[in-house]
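Work package 3, deliverable 3.1, input record:
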Amino acid sequence: MLFNSYAFILIFLPLAAAGYFLFHRFFSAKWALIFLLAASLCFMSLWNVQFAIVLMFSVLVNFACGSALSAAAESNAKSKKPVFIAGITFNILLLGFFKYSNFFLENINAVFATDIHALRILLPIGISFYTFMQIAWLTDIYRQGGYRYDFLSYCLYVTFFPYVMSGPIAYHREIIPQFKTPENWTFNTSNLCRGLFIFSIGLFKKMAIADTLAIIVNGGFDASRVLTFTEAWITSLSFTMQIYFDFSGYTDMAIGAALVFNIRLPINFNSPYKATNIKEFWQRWHITLSRFLLNYVYVPLGGNRKGETRTLINILLLFVICGLWHGAAWAFVFWGLLTGLASIVYRLWAKTGLRLPKAVAWLVYFGFFNISAVFFRAQTWQDTVKVLKGMIGLSGIYVSPNLAGNPFWQKLTVIGIRFGEWRENLPHTDVYVYFLCFLLIPFVLLTKNSNELLEKFSPNWKNAMAVSLMMIAGLLLLNKTSSFLYFNF
Amino acid sequence: MSYLKWLITTLSLILIFTALVVAVNLYVDHHGVRLSLFSGGGKVSQNKIVYPDGINQHMFNPELIFRNSEKFDSFLFGSSRTSVIHVEKIPDSRFYNMSYSLGLPTQHLAILKAFAARGIKIKHVIIGLDEICFAMPAAATQKHLVRIMHPDIGGPGRLEIFGMYFFRKPELEELGRWQDRVMLGKTNGRVITNLQGVNLGWLEKDQLIEKAARPIFHFAADQYKPVTYGPKEMDKAFQAIEELVALAQAHHFQLTFFISPIYSQLYLNNAEALLTAKARLAQITDYYDFSGFNSVTTNPVNYYEEQHYRYQVGDMIIERIFGVDVATLPKDFGILVTKQNIGQHLEKQKHELEQYLKSHSLK
């Protein structure tokens, strides 16, 4: 079941919230949690029952490991380390099996010219997210001890439907105490209003903006054979905007849905396109993934504690892992490598003490992200080359034939500019759709993001009207339902 | 403002906006779904029925038959091309022209099964086939609101249909066409049929061609690039055809297939793939073949544009199938293909294709 579906918005979410608070009111907290757990598993099963089975298998094994680890940590037993290693290995193997088996086999076949058939495996939705959440729990116990939870709370923490499929990657210490706080057990109108507020923003971002941009992105990346200069830039910029509005829209909806249950989720985006360098960007983009990778990958690798060379290697490794986490393909590895190298360049640059003017720094980084996103989106190397070739003008630079009479543009024909249809290879759609990616740039730079708006939310006529309009626009566009980009990761 | 008041205000506004949009969509009814499913029938005047031009005939036509099951005993199925066939000219039957946009054999089968299940007496069914039937996956045709199937014939439920058509953002183009049709009384934005379902929307163009006595379009295949049809689509189409034959036997109705006279320039790149389809079809049933390079299909004056043939061509199809005024028909137009003569027929058509390619220097 998708967040952007009538079934979720009009039936599942209201029923789950009503049931949860009624169980709290008339039965007990334990029954309310059981109900919410059942609702979350039902949510997952509506995609595919097998996904729910894999999820519960992962939860059971991790809970057993975590409990044993916690007991070992408390008694300072020698079994602590082996249990921890077993738990982490299990998680990596589970994720590896479902996500990377066929990628591995493809490469074996390519290198050794063998013909091993691909395994018929469906990638369980959310496995990348809930695996990381559980690795974080095991590591926290190993490092600090404690964090012993009852099975029900732990199960609900991992399976809670607002974030189980695409994050945010919430930590156990952020979520479980909230389920146990009695103040959160009663229906809260303020939280419902705030939840509705941010949910409507997310729905609007996804349905009205991201899915509109998808028309150009899908046409440009997947359908067209060649892209001219303007077409390639429109395509790549549209994707840069699409991925932000799609994923941050999803996160807003997740935050909103959780707020209805009086649960506050960590924020995932903080106006990332305002960043003027790569370091700042990763502090603003997919924040819960960045902090996980920092705390549970970079720090164990040695972080910046083992000398400069090792630090640079660790940065590179961190981003390669980040790339591989996003998908089992060499394009993602390459994207990770590229991002890692950019981080190293930035680190070395920062050490020189030189500073670029803010606008130039923004332009340099935004340009880099826009180009690197091509590797992230293209489904084949041919598509990547096609878009990049177009972006550097190798497939022709066309401007509107209406400009043919203009002497300035006529002079530019010397450098290869031609007059012709500037969107011939893109899908035919309303003119504003082609320019939407440009129109959104000032919007993402100058306006407050949804989390900032939520912080300052106070009920008034203006935002009641805005929420109604965004909600109705989102609801009316649901008939063109599409799935979220980050479900693939 | 208190949180509770804000919540009530917001939810009320959402309801009001929703109701407004639904009301507009219901009123404009661009796809004729309210007309067919929820209020029954178009506006009849002077033996013509006027519909909005986005009409979903996959839904409208079966519903009309469900509601008037006694009026008709025979049906002609096909794509928009066959919608010009004046079925009222067919002798000894009460035909309704069921043609709908990109009609496929699987859809014809589903509708006929539904008719049979509802006890509708069927005397004769004529099915017009063309390259779309073998090339187009059913799922692709079902993505557009013009072609969603009737709720009782494999389509979504009525509630879902209500949501799909009325709980959505109205397109500006639909509003524009509604304005043309209803407010300004213009001819665009509407589809007109007679009471037997024949599309009368080509009449103006027909008169234009008569007056000009020459073709009113130009379409030419600039190179020879033969297409192939997906094996899955072919298998589905032939499975449906086999089931149609079985259904006709089980319910004792006459079933006639024909292949439409596709305009030769359009036919050219489909010719090879269609020859394979024709060979396979002959193993299942006899059929009339009006396609190929004959005196009708090679003359653009017989077409409104490259896709649609004229009413007079439709008349000739009926005349050939029912043996009426056969003497006046071009001899090379329409041949009854059987298991016995298929080999000979295919040889002849292959030869015609080669000749055509040679004479047009396309190979």
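The mean pLDDT of chain B is 90.
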